[in-house]
Amino acid sequence: MRRWIQTSVVMVMWLGWLGLIAACGDSEPVVAPTPEQSSTVSGPRTGSQIFASTCAACHGADGEGADNWMVRDDDGRLPPPPLNGDGHTWHHSDGVLFGIVSEGGLGLGAGSNMPAFKDELTRDEIIAVLEYVKSLWEGKEVDGVPIAQHQREFSETDPYPQSGS
Ligand code: HEC
Question: CA spacing 20 to 30 A to 133: which of 91, 102, 107, 160?
Fold first, then answer.
């Protein structure tokens, strides 16, 4: 009698397991994302996406900057300047531009409202967003020379930092 009970308990447990396994088999199959889907979910963000989410709130949707960008506020700080080529951004080499975005504003005198992004953006993301900023300079010239070309010349001796440095 005891033996019979033991056997039935084991049998019931087995049936339970089989039922569970069968139930799992019925569930929706897991479909692996296609390469295109995974790149939209986790691929690198483009410079324009980074600009829209991280820079546009201060520098304007098209990099136009604040209207009064040359006038210091009551704290002696400068408002966000235009990055679209209407200001003097093109006077800075790649190395200097990288430093401003990575380390934040110039920190001169009263300080600066330009935040440091080194903990938020990778080196490649900083370069991508700066290259996007330069794309806004299309068609802008000084002395008959595109400002992007002036800026490239300044950058020859002061390029973006090497990766890993
Ligand atoms: C919280 C507002 C704010 C955000 C967000 C911000 N900036 Fe700025 N940025 C400033 C201000 C203010 C200055 C002027 C700093 C100064 O001269 O003290 C500045 C200056 C700069 C300069 C120097 C421009 C020049 O002509 O000298 C660059 C380049 C720049 N920002 C790029 C960026 C990029 C790229 C992003 C996004 C990753 C960004 N900023 C996000 C406020 C901001």
Answer: 107
pLDDT, residue 124, reads 97
Tens-place pLDDT, residues 78-132:
999 999 999 999 999 999 999 999 999 875 556 889 999 999 999 999 999 999 9
Nearest CA to ligand 1 atom 39: 55
CA terminus-to-terminus distance, the chain = 78
Q: How many CB atoms lie within 10 A of CB 90?
A: 23
Q: Which residues line ligand 1 (CB under 6 A)?
A: 54-55, 57-59, 78-81, 83, 87-89, 92, 97, 100-101, 105-106, 112-115, 117, 129, 133
